[in-house]
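Postdoc handover notes: sequence design on the structure in folder B. Input tokens:
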């Protein structure tokens, strides 16, 4: 079976990646000025739990098309993620305001929170 290239794998994914502090600031500004719901997954490349939950996060982004999905690596966005103390951390936004936060893994818990947000 042929391995998918990153572009192919992300073609059907409803997700944006923050690659720097500035890009995360821009994304947060967009979320705060939008009426659309959003979820941010704060993780790290060295975090085993993050690596295990990321594929589920990607898959859920395809299922919940009306929610904006964002991934931010805390090492790539060190200034804007100073308050993140646990990875993964998921923050949920509605009408530009943070309405919920979830720490740790749990695909079913994440799905349930996304369902409530949608």
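Designed sequence:
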């Amino acid at each position: 079976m042929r391995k998918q290239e990153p572009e192919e794998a992300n073609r059907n994914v409803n997700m944006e990646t923050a690659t720097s502090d500035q890009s995360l600031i821009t994304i947060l500004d967009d979320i705060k000025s939008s009426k659309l719901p959003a979820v941010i997954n704060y993780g790290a490349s060295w975090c085993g739990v993050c690596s295990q939950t990321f594929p589920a996060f990607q898959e859920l982004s395809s299922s919940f098309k009306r929610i904006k999905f964002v991934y931010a690596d805390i090492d790539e966005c060190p200034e804007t993620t100073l308050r993140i103390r646990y990875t993964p951390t998921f923050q949920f936004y509605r009408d530009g305001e943070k309405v919920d936060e979830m720490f740790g893994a749990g695909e079913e818990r994440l799905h349930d929170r996304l369902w409530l947000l949608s």
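Context for whoever picks this up: The domain at 15-117 is CATH 3.40.30.10 (Glutaredoxin). Don't rerun without checking with the PI first.
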